[in-house]
């Protein structure tokens, strides 16, 4: 009978018992963050934690981390959260000036400037 270095025959049937330690739910494809509850209204005022009418990356990250920590939102799993937050910020900082303003947070959907509610943020 041929044996491996650990004394298990090469033709042995191995059975493994696994224990699930953590289940990490995802987010829909194409999203970096989803709300699990209604987003704060008005969103920009909640995000602008120091009320200076602009939200830099640090303030944006702190706001999202609070939402995730309190179970109101979920970040994309499997990717470093700092990378996800940086990408989310970049998507909202439409004029690339390193801060988000209330105007940048709103999406213009037609010529009458109807504002659409953000589904992802």
CATH architecture classification of the domain at 33-116 = Orthogonal Bundle
Compute the CA-based radius of gyration: 23 Å
- The CATH C-level name of the domain at 33-116 is Mainly Alpha
Residue share in helices?
Answer: 25-40%
Largest sheet: 2 strands, antiparallel
Individual helix count: 4
Look at the structure and give the mean pLDDT.
85
Key structural traits:
single chain, 121 residues, alpha+beta, Recoverin, domain 1, two-stranded antiparallel ribbon, two-stranded antiparallel sheet, 4 helices, 8% strand, elongated
Structure report:
This is EF-hand domain-containing protein. Residues 43-70, 80-115 form the EF-hand domain. The chain is an alpha+beta fold and 121 residues long. The protein has a domain at 33-116: EF-hand (Recoverin, domain 1), CATH 1.10.238. The chain has helices at residues 43-47, 57-69, 81-92, 102-105, and strands at 33-35, 73-75, 107-108, 115-116. The strands form 2 sheets. The protein has a two-stranded antiparallel ribbon with strand order 1-2. Helix 2 (57-69) crosses helix 3 (81-92). It is elongated, with a radius of gyration of 23 Å.
